[in-house]
Amino acid sequence: MARSHPLLQPYKPTADDPFDVIKATHLLNRAGFGGTPQEIDRVQKMGPAAALEMLFDFPEACADEQSRTDVPDLSSIDDYPKDFRELQKLMVGKTEEERKALRQKLMAANREAVNATASWWIKRMAFGPYPLQEKLTLFWHGHFTTSAKDERQASLIWNQNELHRRMAAGNFRSYVKAISRDPAMLDYLNNSQNRKAHPNENYARELMELFTLGIGNYTEPDIKNAARAFTGWAHDGDDFIFRKFDHDNDKKTFMGQYGNFDGDDIIEIILSREACGNYIAGRFYKFFVNDELPPDLQAAMGDILRDSNYEMRPLLRTIFASKAFYQPSVIGSQIKSPIQLVVGTVRLLNLDMPRERAISGALNQMGQVPLYPPNVKGWPGGHAWINTSTLFVRYNTCVWLAGGSGQFAMMNPKGKFRGMANGPDTGFKPSTGDTAEAVVDQWVLRLIGRPIAPDAREVLINSLGGHPEREDNVRKMVQLIVSMPDYQLC
Q1: Cα–Cα distance between 402 and 396 in angstroms, integer?
Q2: Band (125; pLDDT cuts 50, 70, 90)
Q3: Fewer CB within a 10 Å sphere, N or C end of the chain?
Q4: DSSP alpha helices (H): ranges in 308-435?
């Protein structure tokens, strides 16, 4: 029976606490990458419950395990098929020697294919039909971390990205078993080299420390015995394989239980621990709501996850519908990740996506390139996003996206900096108005989604120079808004 907590009670709009533009904006920021004025207006009119139903209306995890979304277009890459589906077809019917030769031929083009995949994903986040699914995919990419830097086959990185998308709000038990068999994960944490004669503990350690339990909820002997249970788990190209002659069939002691365990048995034992549900619930809460998480609130959320047999939608719905989510102290308190900042700005300004190299260069300098997390812990997030160098890039990237010029510096492939003299050709045409006050209030509401300090508002009004009807004046005013500290938060 799940423990109750007052902050997990559903938020219900009242006359004194309405579901206003600020709350609608907050929902679209946290459950996606921000909303256009039309989307915010629609969500506000729908109310929080109906809006949540709309956001969760994306394909179920197990509807079709073989289903795929649209695919990256790789046709511009020399020596590469048009897309990863075509690549898979090329492997069919070939001997292992022929497959190996083909992979070697494609290896030089793999880096370009990875970058094309990252660009494809950024566009999905900005323009795709299911913003919450993409936000969850980003969450899981930072949780079940794999880096394309260490993976020679671009197709495996895309396959894993699709796995995150399919399982985004599905069953966590099934998800852990699937990611444990994922070829990119098997490579990244060296489980393909995990054999009875020489057990490799990397995956077993991170499975418990980062993926399911958290530090302090397992022992070193647990790691050693879990590693033995995962021996023989490997892959052949896109396919998981079990090498039975490399598997340790001897009995093992794990978390107080004794038996001839394999990897799935280890996962089942882990999920039976209270710490597992609490840990995953805490990761959700800190990503979507707030870094400050009282232990009793975390325990109550863990109960919801366990009581639903690790189906994740009930917990996620509870979080997004809760009083905790709509607390005034939570709204506008989260530092935007670089991806949230860039994708959100593209959405809020109704831009076309700038060219791939410019976006990836900016994200690189800000410390978050899709498919390239820094290590197995993923991105630290929070205040780690902000320092003296990244703050400069964050401000100037947003100004550049809003049509600004001059100071935004980009790093070219040789590691040298070059100035971006002009803003991108993204079709940004700011709306004007009759009065400076009305124009400022309209754009502040659209871009920040909550009130700003009176003196900051006055600066924006003065920046229009008494001519709010001039497009150039409004564009410069918008550039001031996106370079404000308030814009760095959502």
Answers
A1: 10
A2: very high
A3: N
A4: 312-321, 338-348, 356-366, 388-401
